[in-house]
Specification:
The protein is an alpha/beta fold. It has 13 helices and twelve strands. Helix 8 packs parallel to helix 13. The longest helix has 21 residues. The mean pLDDT is 95.
Length: 379
Amino acid sequence: MIYFDNSATTMIDSTVLETYNKVNQLYYGNPSSLHTIGETASGLLKQSRSLTADLLGVLPEEIFFTSGGTEGDNWAIKGTAIEKISSGKHLITTQSEHPAVLETFKQLELLGWDITYLPVNQFGVISLEDLRNALKKDTVLVSVMAVNNETGSIQPIEKIGRLLEAYPTVHFHVDAVQAIGKTDIKLGKTSRIDMAVFSGHKFHGPKGTGFVYIKNGRRLSPLLSGGGQEANARSGTENIPGIVSMAKALNILLQSKKEKHLVMNQMMDMLKKDLRSRSKVTIFSPEVHAPHILCFGIKGIRGEVIVHALEKREIYVSTTSACSSKKQSESSSLIAMGIPRKQAETAIRVSLSEWNTVDEMAQFIDHFDEIYKGFNGIF
């Protein structure tokens, strides 16, 4: 079995799973409880927060644990909109965001907020000039994802941050779910990023885990009210087994990062070299993209046909976003990049993890070659 659908989710690391099970069985106390079992759980929570913060170069009080990327994006966007409603109701994002972001903005739009959806170019990247021109006196939020989950396009986050230095009251939110461990995301005092969202199951942690970085001094209205957990910002009994094991997965992810990137780049170079030799294949990802994602298609062949043909050979890829693949809808990111709908319908996405190997990629290319030749009569 070859699993090349890691942007959708990753397999949990065995040692991370062991940690999850151990904490679940032995340290099951509620961290808000006053007794010893609760205090032990509270200590694990504190250690995990400190480890996560240290790994990202930020302060422990700037890390807030959530259930994953969707909750984090909703909180960063809606929390800003509600908190800063007296300052303005204009929000800016891009046309190629993840549904967790786009659908959140659409909901706010229905409720009366003014939303600007910045276009992207053929490489999936926004224009800084468009962003500059979109900013208004009542703008309170700019939300731009670091790495596109469908194409691997990399947004100029640092340049956006430098532009926003002149707008200190505007929150800058980054969906960093696909970026962590793959591209450099600079957080902390020297970074203009105010909020960044992460999801544990994207880096071999358990599903249902995630965290949001919120820079000191930035305030978000809570979405979840209740017992006042997470410094009154995100109520609900903390998922201690998930949090502890996610912190461990993050620690493993960020070890030997350069070496892991070299292997992924080698695999991607192999794949792109092969695909470029095929006249009926179109590569949709830009030349410069994240090391783990490549989007491409065979002319005239719907993406799901290729997905199922590979599945029969126990090779697993996806069409584009896992959130839209079962709906059989074309890639919103490709449409935003100006790809015609019929062509966008051919798209499949190969997404790697640190666990994949060069041998697996060689096998993938061999199988893809056989599938490609099988369509000769259609071309």
